[in-house]
Write a structure and sequence with these properties.
Mean pLDDT: 84
Structural class: mainly alpha
Number of helices: 5
Low-confidence stretches: none
Largest sheet: 2 strands, antiparallel
Radius of gyration: 17 Å
Number of strands: 4
Bound molecules: zinc ion
Distance between the termini: 55 Å
Length: 121
């Protein structure tokens, strides 16, 4: 009897269900592997979102248990994501002055607004 697939693929935006213990669906496993071959040896690129970031993010989230944007409006919304005010791709850093703790709705709103601005540029 086949085991029930029960975890989603970890590839961003993909929610295909795969067996527990796997990380990616077949399609994304090969994509991730080829990305790794291309970029995996470039340590500086990897470090951007590496283990250090996870540690910084976890600590920042622990110190900011509530969404900072909601908090300003007097709403206590649980922190779900840490956002870079200036994206790493635009020269931002993991410095806490560049971080903000957000709930999911606030985070996606920020990105939607940024996206709009980009499109109109
Ligand atoms: Zn996938
Ligand atoms: Zn919020
Ligand atoms: Zn963000």
């Amino acid at each position: 009897m086949p085991r029930k697939p029960d975890v989603p693929c970890r590839y961003p935006g993909c929610s295909r269900l795969i067996p527990a213990g796997e990380r990616y669906c077949d399609e994304h496993r090969s994509k991730v592997n080829s990305d790794y071959e291309k970029y995996g040896r470039d340590k500086t690129a990897k470090r951007k979102y590496g283990r250090a970031w996870k540690r910084i993010r976890d600590r920042y989230a622990a110190e900011h248990p509530f969404c900072e944007m909601c908090y300003e409006k007097g709403v206590m919304a649980k922190t779900e994501q840490i956002h870079h005010k200036l994206p790493l791709s635009e020269g931002g850093t993991h410095d806490r002055s560049n971080l903000i703790a957000l709930c999911k709705p606030c985070h996606s709103r920020i990105h939607a607004q940024r996206g709009d601005r980009w499109n109109r540029r």
